[in-house]
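Ligand: adenine. Inputs:
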Amino acid sequence: MTIQNPAAPGSAAGASKLPAHDVADLSLAAEGKRRIEWAEREMPVLRLIRERFEREKPLAGLRLAACLHVTTETANLVRTLKAGGAEVVLCASNPLSTQDETAAALVAEYGISVFARHGADRDMYYKHLNAAADVRPHMTMDDGCDLVTLIHQERRDQLTEIFAGTEETTTGVIRLKAMAADDALGYPVIAVNEALTKHLFDNRYGTGQSTVDGVIRATNLLIAGRHVVVAGYGWCGKGIASRFRGMGAQVAVVEVDQVRALEALMDGNLVMTIGDAASWGDIFVTATGDIHVIRPEHFRKMRDGVIMANSGHFDCEIDLPGLTELAGDKIREVRENVVEYTVGGKRLHVLAEGRLVNLSCAAGHPASVMDMSFANQALAGEYLAQKHAELPKGVYDVPQEIDVEVARLKLAALDIVLDPLTPEQVKYLASWQHGT
Ligand code: ADE
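Predicted complex:
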């Protein structure tokens, strides 16, 4: 990795003095800026927060390392954090989600230090994380817990300097809770994913829409009439299943949790084991957060032409090493982002190397939902800057007042006005005497 123009992160952008960075191509910056501005139109809550941050500078003096998907929506978040006075360095939280033009614009147009290239290999990915950690942050902002894990495993001396962090996604929160249970977590982290204004919209509608978008962009398949198997019926799985149903697919859900399985059934899906689903499905999407959900015994049963995609954070849900072993030398790329594995004469296709299909084959969640997720991130960052000294190490929910404020601002931006309760209704809700 060559670090170009290694000026101090956060220094002013200019032709001659760019912040430290490693991005694919700075000449893409103008296009990136146009796209960032397009996303911003759908992010009114974050814009309001940015305007306030510009005036109040609640993050002044704070060094912040963010490991997030480098998208136009994230660009608007890091602009907000910078407006609040933070010195921000951004690295990618997934090698295939980086939008190179966004990365270029952040460096050249907005003066933000970025380490991210689309298609980075593992070595480069971790070099970029280390470059972000080199800023010696006071705060981390993670999506999937890779930065937190790196710091806890390899850069422990920094734990005394970091006073707090935030985490964006379900998988990251599960890891943080495992760390906390092992008494291994070195500082307080707010689980942004747990905010209602995050997972009810981002995980459900964002993942739902962008996953279908990713599958369609990669394959151009007609969804109507297909058998779609969705593994996992958390908020993401619920969204994915509902969007595929909405496009006319028959959906079967695979679950290990009794209540979620029942919910899936009553939402109108079939429910079956992955063993049975293997020979039924045309399209398989995993969103479980667990490893090897689809394995060799399932690949062997699949029909010719099936599509497999993953929407969980890590690329371990489809057992690709197992599939590679089965297919031997009968593996080829048949279309951008589509690799065909021939197993027993049948052609099985995997999208985007089993990595997040919605960010690898499409552009991730639409800006309108990321507006709420990233408003929670920005406000959680502000909260931690003020309150970190009072918070012992551990995993925290987003304070309820932030969650409600994000909903209020979003509704206001959409010009939606709610009814106030009448005095009689307030009184009724506080009473217990009324019966039939
Ligand atoms: N996660 C899912 N979609 C995203 C997006 N558009 N930007 C950043 N992170 C995301």
